[in-house]
Amino acid sequence: MTTATLKDARFWDNIADSYSRKPIADEEAYEIKLSITREYLSPEDCVLEFGCGTGSTALRHAPYVAHIDAIDVSSEMIAIAQRKADAGNVPNVTFREGDIEDPSLETGRYDAVFGLSILHLMHDRDAVLQRVHTMLKPGGVFVTSTTCLGDGQIHWRMLLPLMRAIGKAPFISFFSQNDLIEAHTRAGFQIVHQWQPSKDAALFLVAQKI
Ligand SMILES: C[S@@+](CC[C@H](N)C(=O)[O-])C[C@H]1O[C@@H](n2cnc3c(N)ncnc32)[C@H](O)[C@@H]1O
Question: Which of 13, 118, 187, 208 could form an SS bridge with 51, CB 3.0 to 4.6 Å?
């Protein structure tokens, strides 16, 4: 298993409702990330978002592309996302339960893949980077925002495994920003945009398939 386990899916199912009501931590940084992402999108683009959560980001980008396939391992997250799409009458986002490993996802199909607040949750991040690389068309972009807990914040290394053991945290992988960037390079990407809104904030990357 390179990505999610059933335990992970259950964790996210259990918190889906509260997650959907949680305000965005840094609205300004979120809006900047949306607008940087849009610089790489075109109206004819086909996009995949994995780990789409309650769908907010996919729904914001929907008017700027042809279609978004948005998947998440949590059926509860997908149910909330679908309700939002129905309420907003958004015709070009398909929300469905799924994992990035899902063999029904077509390789070489996507102009852009989004993976937001997700790479640090992967059991085998490097396998996921390779998988995303195969899903993209040549020149396509992988847009990510990732918490890099390998850069300091030592207390999390002790706390998070304990929290996971009692069902209060998902699986979390610890790696540094440099490690993440090098992993992109190894998988065949070139970083074309890199931004960290503030110290300890998630690292935002746009990586192009080469
Ligand atoms: C921290 S939330 C991020 C949600 C959304 N991307 C955002 O930025 O708000 C992580 C999401 O990834 C989903 N997830 C975890 N592992 C996954 C996997 N292997 N494939 C697809 N989704 C996954 C969880 O169910 C959860 O909704």
Answer: 118
Domain spanning 3-209 has what CATH number?
A: 3.40.50.150
Q: pLDDT, tens digit, for every residue of 55-104?
A: 999 999 999 999 999 999 999 999 999 999 999 999 999 999 999 989 89
pTM: 0.95
From the list 193, 189, 200, the residue with the least C-alpha distance to 36 is 193
Residues 10-32: tens digit of each pLDDT: 999 999 999 999 999 999 999 99
Sheet of 46-50: strand order equals 93-97, 67-72, 46-50, 110-116, 136-146, 203-209, 189-195
Nearest CA, atom 23, ligand 1: 51
Separation of CA 168 and ligand 1 centre (Å):
16
Instruction: Locate the domains of the chain by residue range.
Output: 3-209
